[in-house]
Specification:
Blueprint lengths: L1 H21 L6 E5 L6 H17 L3 E5 L6 H9 L6 E6 H10 L11 E17 L7 H11 L4 E4 L5 H13 L4 E4 L3 H10 L4 E5 H10 L2 E6 L25 E9 L4 H16 L1 H9 L2 E2 L8 H22 L7
Parallel strand pairs: 1-2, 1-3, 5-6
Antiparallel strand pairs: 3-9, 4-7, 4-8, 4-9, 4-10
């Protein structure tokens, strides 16, 4: 009997050890942001990471891996062990636009990553340096037409959300300005504030603080409805540019092959972050739209990606040629 009790105790200990080894997360989780610190994706990631740390019981650390229009960071996650300890905060640019723009992209966002959930939708706003002598979209369009050879606009690189928005604006007006690319929207905004570039199509989450501070000028929200965080800024639809909607969505991914229980654990942490009143208030204050419950989860994100790829392919190819990553 004593031998049986001892054997049972050993078996229980082994089982407990195995469970401990497979428990998730067993160490800090890295959330890769594929752009420089200070940009809109970085801001969103840090808000989620702080709250998700409490739910997961391990610290979620944001790491900025900038370069090549965000593809360096995405590729790093795609190559990581699929154990849930490396996650990605991707967005429309890294997951959709890059797929359309680049011939030599090192990942396929549909097959090399495990979708977890959509987390935020952010409209873009057309902003200019403070010294630009325009007060409306009509004046802005006229100014660009008369000075297009000397005008430059800032982006976080080819394929970034700011690049996509910038292409839409130029296409609608019928001009072509010089694009100045940066390693993230944060550095791009810094140069806009300093007056080194003339305009930018930026995510509202990144632009609102500077607009409120009066360091840049807001011209129009790229959409068909005004944003609550910028109630006095008209839309491009109001200016007669119907259809020029640029919505930059953000979503969480892991490496392909991440086990279903781990995906569910990360999704639970995302849902709890979005249910937190402090997180919600901050995201809304920055101009973000929270996804409804039915738009969350892996299946919904897969469908959303398919729809976005179909929508953006003809738009992007009409204003930009396929290129190669530098």
């Amino acid at each position: 009997m004593r031998t049986l009790i001892l054997a049972a105790a050993v078996a229980m200990a082994v089982s407990a050890g195995a469970d401990a080894q497979t428990a998730y997360p067993s160490r800090p989780v890295t959330m890769v942001v594929p752009f420089a610190a200070g940009g809109p994706t970085d801001v969103v990631a840090r808000l989620f990471a702080q709250n998700m740390s409490r739910t997961l019981g391990q610290q979620v650390v944001v790491e900025n891996v900038a370069g090549a229009a965000g593809s360096l960071g995405v590729s790093r996650v795609a190559r990581a062990a699929p154990d849930g300890h490396t996650l990605l905060m991707g967005h429309m640019g890294t997951q959709i636009a890059n797929m359309i723009l680049y011939d030599n992209l090192t990942y396929d966002s549909r097959t090399d990553l495990e979708p977890v959930s959509l987390v935020l939708n952010v409209s873009q706003v057309l902003v200019t340096k403070k010294a630009m002598p325009v007060d409306s979209f009509a004046q802005f369009a006229d100014f660009l037409k008369r000075n297009q050879a000397t005008i430059s606009y800032a982006t976080a690189g080819v394929g970034s959300g700011s690049h996509i928005g910038g292409m839409l604006v130029q296409s609608a007006i019928g001009v072509k300005n010089e694009m100045i690319g940066y390693r993230g929207t944060g550095p791009a905004m810094n140069d806009l504030v300093a007056g080194h570039v003339d305009w930018m199509a930026d995510q509202i989450t990144n632009a609102v603080p500077q607009i409120r501070a009066g360091t840049i000028r807001a011209i129009a929200v790229l959409g068909d409805r005004r944003n609550p965080s910028l109630p006095d800024v008209p839309t491009t639809a109001e200016a007669g540019m119907a259809g020029a909607n640029s919505n930059i969505w953000h979503a969480v991914y892991g490496p392909k092959g991440m086990p279903a229980p781990v995906v569910e654990a990360v999704l639970k942490a995302v849902r709890e972050a979005l249910a937190d009143e402090t997180v919600k208030a901050r995201l809304v204050d920055l101009g973000g739209d929270l996804p409804p419950a039915e738009a969350m989860g892996p299946a919904a994100l897969r469908r959303h990606m398919d729809e976005e790829l179909a929508r953006w392919t003809p738009i992007i190819r009409s204003v930009a040629e396929k290129t190669t990553l530098q």
